Amino acid sequence: MAYNEKCFKIVETEASWAEAVIYCKEYGATLGTIDNVGEQNFLENYIRSANTVTNQSFNTGDDYVYHYLRDLGIDITGHSSITFSVQACNDAHVALSQTKGNDNVDTYEIVIGGWADSQSVIRDCKQCDNKDEAHHR
User: Fold this and answer.
1) Can you give the residue ranges of the Farnesoic acid O-methyl transferase domain (predicted)?
2) CA-derived radius of gyration, the chain
């Protein structure tokens, strides 16, 4: 991507400074430098927009099995927030988890519209005690 007289390439591979310099040399380039606020803002906006997932849609069954976004081709790594909507005949369970497959470790379960749409709750694992609740009726 170009900005003024410079051309930048964002590489998402983690590397040390020395490794990054070698990587750039292999492609006939030099490690980028940011020389002014305009370049800084341009790169920040580019990275922010490149990491924005929009208009993703998927359906899950009525099976109370968590479906992981990454398995559905959606990567939210590095995002500080996520916005979603739910259409359900009953309650919806949303898990925020760091450990795939282990619902009792590093997981928050959010139940939306549970108990005949009378309340929503937050738990710190699947089916654990409620940490907080909001009553709707």
Assistant:
1) 63-131
2) 21
> Hey, CA dihedral for 79, 80, 85, 89, is it positive or negative?
positive
Separation between Cα atoms, residue 116 and residue 32, nearest integer Å: 56
Return the DSSP state at 17: H
Whole-angstrom distance, CA of residue 45 vs CA of residue 30: 22
Question: Quick one: tokens of 2?
Answer: 């170009």
Give the three-class secondary structure for 119: strand
Determine the number of helices (DSSP H) and then strands (DSSP E) in the chain: 3, 6
Cβ neighbours of residue 127 under 8 Å, at least 6 residues apart? 109
Task: Write out pLDDT tens, residues 34-49.
Answer: 999 999 988 888 877 7
Dist CA 21 CA 47 (whole Å): 20
- pLDDT (0 to 100) of residue 55: 66
Query: What residues does each domain of the chain span?
Result: 2-50, 69-135
